[in-house]
TrEMBL record:
Protein name: Triosephosphate isomerase
Keywords: Cytoplasm, Gluconeogenesis, Glycolysis, Isomerase
Source organism: Candidatus Uhrbacteria bacterium RIFCSPLOWO2_02_FULL_48_12
Active site: 94 (electrophile), 164 (proton acceptor)
EC number: 5.3.1.1
Amino acid sequence: MDRPFVIGNWKMNLSLSKSAALARAMAEEKPPERATVVLCPSFPFIAAVAETVEGTHIKVGAQNAAAEEKGAYTGEVSAGMLKELGCHYVIIGHSERRQHAGENNEMIKRKLTLANHYGLVPILCVGEKMEERQTGQWENVIAHQLTVAEGLPLAANFLIVAYEPVWAIGSGQTVSSDDARLAARTIRALLLELLGATVSQKQCAVIYGGSVTAANVKMFVGQDLMDGVLVGASSIDAHEFLGIINALNK
Ligand code: PGA
């Protein structure tokens, strides 16, 4: 992919003033247009961040969306609302939500379908736990998690699959370059089966997430590797996040 995705998942880490300051710092730096840069703040700060980066090529995403379209779902935020706020992307099925909010494939499929219906680019997270890797299960785990994308009517939309091994998130551990290559190839083959040749080649991207830094990002992205990265901890520091973007543009 000529324009790697560099997506920052700020998680529940930044206050309103810190979110706005980080968005401002990113907007002022004008990261190279050869990367697709997406910032994913917490729900209440999406509008402020979207306003701050307006007029730049930086896009905004959400960290989650409801599994229902509208109605009596107290505390939920729908895909339609996120679109109204200026989101272009939404993270779906992050392992932290699978773990802490009990999200399963059935809910994730509904979220994915709704995000797509409202023209948000879903960033579907998949990845195995350490014991699943150690027992040779990673491929089966990913294949099962990816079934939610089967027959997704993408029309003109795009789908990003983020391969995020659970053991690599926030741990300082990452996959090797060879494992990233193998995971990218495996996921692309699964997408081909699920969505067909044209869609899987032209409307899908596969990215890596898990302890990505400016120093290691080149291990994961490139020809035969991943199409970009989903970044947690290193995305809440403007200098480090810009370092990741710049490393991919060298
Ligand atoms: P990390 O998080 O970069 O802090 O490991 C990645 C993620 O959870 O998306």
